[in-house]
Structures are given as structure tokens and as C-alpha cells.
Write a structure and sequence with these properties.
Layout: H1 3-11, H2 17-26, H3 28-34, H4 49-54, H5 61-78, H6 87-97, H7 107-117, H8 123-137, E1 155-156, E2 159-160
Antiparallel strand pairs: 1-2
Length: 165
């Protein structure tokens, strides 16, 4: 497969982020294409697309969404037709939509929900599952916090602590 075909396969959801990263490291032609001097803001602010990809947590849904978007924009720059697989973004947006305003979900928790999201048959069951996971994991002694700045729940070993006040 040529480098652009590899990128299209990833963007269209036929290849996982982890496999795409592995291929980009093993396939010299793909690595060279990803190291091209192409400006795709904000993804190339710190260098090139290859550097951006290597800096991501490859198991994270947020990374999947971001890297797919970056690669899709890259394909547009190259004039290559493709269809973006929007399912990871839709799951991510649904999780965020059902998250209360007093909480900014840590990425590890989003990824935990994603593992269970495969059991959700529709958006309503996903909403119930997300709300249940949040209610049982982010507990408060009395009432939810009112943050002075952006929400930052304290977690230890990927477990949210009890909010006392």
C-alpha cells in the first residue's frame, strides 16, 4: 500500500491508531510523507505530523479523534479523496454531552467509558451508562463542587477521590 492509502485506511476507520503508528514507524515511505513540511494548525505547531502522532497516547479516544482530524486535513491538502470515520468523534461528543458542568472528565476515565460504550446500543443507553459511571465514580460528601476555575477532580491511581469540600 502506498503512504496515502495507509493514511486513508486510518482516516476511514479501517486501521486502529496503534496500528497506524506502528506502520508509520516501520514504513519508511509513510514516515517520510508524515515528516513533510506541511502546515496544519494546530497539529504541526511543534514540528511535523510524525512528531505530533508520536506525542499522542495511542490508547486514548481523544488522540484517535485528533490524529484522524489531522490526517484528514493532510489528505485534503494532498487532494486525496476520503471519507472520515466520524464514529470516534460521535462517541467522544456523546460522552462530553452527558458530563455535568461541574466535572471535566480525565482522559483515562473517558477511555474507561469507551470500553463500556461498545455495549451501549443507542445514544440513550450510552447516556444512561455515562451518567451511571460518573455518579458512582465521582462522589461527593455533600454536594458537587463549584469550581473557582476549570474543574480539576483529584484522582489517584486512576481513581477519583471523594470530594469533601
Amino acid at each position: 500500500m502506498n503512504p496515502l492509502d495507509e493514511i486513508v485506511a486510518f482516516v476511514e476507520g479501517h486501521t486502529s491508531l496503534r496500528d497506524f503508528v506502528r506502520t508509520s514507524r516501520e514504513n519508511e515511505a509513510l514516515g517520510t510523507v508524515l515528516e513533510e513540511d506541511v502546515t496544519i494548525r494546530p497539529y504541526t505547531d511543534a514540528g511535523n505530523l510524525m512528531l505530533y502522532i508520536l506525542q499522542q497516547d495511542w490508547s486514548s479516544l481523544a488522540a484517535q479523534v485528533s490524529v484522524q482530524d489531522a490526517m484528514s486535513q493532510f489528505l485534503h491538502v494532498k487532494g486525496r479523496d476520503h471519507t472520515l470515520d466520524r464514529s470516534p468523534l460521535q462517541i467522544y461528543e456523546a460522552i462530553l454531552a452527558y458530563t455535568p458542568a461541574w466535572l471535566c472528565l480525565p482522559e483515562f476515565f473517558v477511555d474507561r467509558i469507551v470500553k463500556h460504550a461498545k455495549d451501549a446500543l443507542d445514544r440513550k443507553s450510552l447516556a444512561v451508562m455515562v451518567k451511571n459511571e460518573i455518579t458512582t465514580s465521582f462522589r461527593c460528601l455533600e454536594k458537587p463542587p463549584r469550581w473557582g476555575q476549570s474543574p480539576n477532580w483529584i484522582c489517584v491511581d486512576e481513581r477519583p477521590l471523594l470530594f469533601v469540600g
